[in-house]
Amino acid sequence: MSALSSVSRLFASNNPRGYHGCFMSPTLRSLYALLLAIGLLVGSLPARAADDSAIFPLSDVKPGMKGVVYTIFDGDQVEKVDLEVIGVLHNAVGPKQDVILVRLLGDKVQQTGVVAGMSGSPVYLDGKLLGALALKLGTFTKEAIGGVTPIKDMLEVEQSSVAPVPTGPALPPNGPIKDTLRVPLPEDLAQRVAAGSGGFLVPIETPLVAAGLYPETLARFGSVFSAWGMAVMAGGTAAPSPEDAQLKPGDMVGIDLIRGDLSLSSGCTVTTVDAGRILACGHALFGFGAVGIPLSRAHVVMTLASAATSTKIISTGGTIGTLTQDRQTAVMGTLGAAPPMIPVDVTLETPGAEKKYHFEVIESPQLAPTLVATAVYNGIIGSPVYGEGSTLELDGTIEMKGHTPVHLLDLFAPTDQPVPAGFFVATDVQAAFARIYSNPYERPQISRVDLHVKALAQRQWAAIDNAWVEKSEVHPGETVAVKVLLRPYRGEPFIQEIPVTIPAQAARGTLELAISDADFLNRNVQTLALSAQGQLAGLEELIQLINRERHNSRLYATLLQPTPTMLVEDKEMPNVPASTINVLDQRQNVGGARLLWQSTVGEWSVEMHEVIAGQHMLAITVK
């Protein structure tokens, strides 16, 4: 029963003489007019998706039907856009997952087409909710053709709300789920919308709004964001307001990835709001399933029309809740408290000044490594005290609840390639995050990241050119001077001496003495150990392995002998007897043992305060 008919019945029951015409008293006429206006207003509001009677059945959808979609073009004003149903694509996305093909009508959409950020805009037929605008027809199309995700498919996301939080380390093999979704058009519909052969419906791009993101950062990491199906653009932040959480269908929400001195948020349109729970987008954001990402109120600054991809330019306001589900047909969230984020502090120090940045990054195994790298790189290159050509020294920690902190200590010199040293710092931090999150033992709870980056003058780098020892025959306990010829970048060669004392347990005969950089050693013992991390005892042992990695600002001398080394979990056992190896070969479970066919007798190093590169092998005879 409509609100208008309810008002009419109310007056009919309380006014036996009739409620029309001059028989109604002036007071009663005024009251009737007020209630009539309220009834008309209530009757015009969008129906709630939680009410089955307010849902338009997919089986009743026919080509040519007229409807409306609610969205925002600028400000916070939800506008109505007329549309026409073209047809229904059955099983388009998957078994029993249909798509309704529609044509948007009106002057605005003729200019903009289907706009990035419209994802989730609620669609109504006969005043009943049909679904959410979620797909668009290719690029450079002359008409605003879109695909609607049926509301019944979106409501199924609620049934997945008890799914466990995923622990997978990375994106799907072919990229984000949303990025792989392509719905082919049948030939008859492709001709009707002038799509031609090979026409596809693809998810509407999600605006990825950045405030404080430098163009150089976008140039380095923009391809990653594009692979997520997001259109990166400049945006801003707005002051929080008490009205931020008062959402209605057609409003926009921000999904906050980074907050602080740099903010990065994607935006979607709200489809339904019911008892503090919202559905939005009409397609996956990343396709990660159960998630915990902060939600904020988003405001549309303007809609930028483009022949390629029109998009909403948005700003994000106060935090209003948590995104809890990221599924193929919708994203779902709850209004209220936001989940915790990872605090990241970056300090850039130069001889003349110091600059500090603070960020918060979402705790996501799939996204956090890249987001932290983006924030770190942006903080380094954006500081006025940073200049290209400097060598960067990284000293940082990644703190986790219940575990030893991961220590990051390395030196990064600029190269002749067009890649700044700051990028190597960022990717080194990213690699450490990826190792931690990809561990098969437990989901890490990262509590804090603190990075100190010191800029040193000029390019501090040297290559190992040659090496020699005073004498080639030595005895156990004897100390020999190893001399290494180093050739620095655009500098005079110089000799560095490393005193090496032959251990008493060294095998007799000819041994190898490796003069090398850190990378040579990490590629051998360390890489083999980390490659079998599934056989370690747990996350703590993995952290210990990471913390034992050699640093590239040191020059190493490593004495090797031709006896096996056994790696058991995070332990190195050199000079393993052949009898032990034979016993382990006969056992089916050897506790994650791996073999190296050389053993380290001793290792020595000196701090060089510059990046060392290369290696040189020497032969020493132990008498």
> Can you tell me the residue ranges where pLDDT is under 50 for at least 5 consecutive residues?
1-28, 31-51, 163-179
Percent of residues in beta strands:
35-45%
Q: What's the end-to-end separation, in Å? A: 103 Å
SS element count, helices: 12
Could you tell me the number of beta strands?
A: 34
Radius of gyration using CA atoms only: 32 Å
**CATH homologous superfamily grouping of the largest domain:** Trypsin-like serine proteases
CATH class of the largest domain: Mainly Beta
Strand order of the largest sheet: 1-2-3-6-5-4
Q: CATH topology of the largest domain, what is it called? A: Thrombin, subunit H
Give average pLDDT, whole number.
Answer: 81
CATH architecture of the largest domain: Beta Barrel
- Structural category: alpha+beta
Helix percent band: 10-25%
Morphology call: elongated
Number of domain units = 4
Architecture overview:
This protein has 623 residues and is α+β, with helices and mostly antiparallel strands. It has four domains: 42 residues; 258 residues, Trypsin-like serine proteases (Thrombin, subunit H, Beta Barrel), CATH 2.40.10; 115 residues, Roll (Ubiquitin-like (UB roll)); 161 residues, no CATH class. The protein contains twelve helices and 34 strands. A hairpin with a 4-residue loop joins strand 16 and strand 17. Helix 1 packs antiparallel against helix 2, helix 7 packs antiparallel against helix 8 and helix 8 runs antiparallel to helix 9.
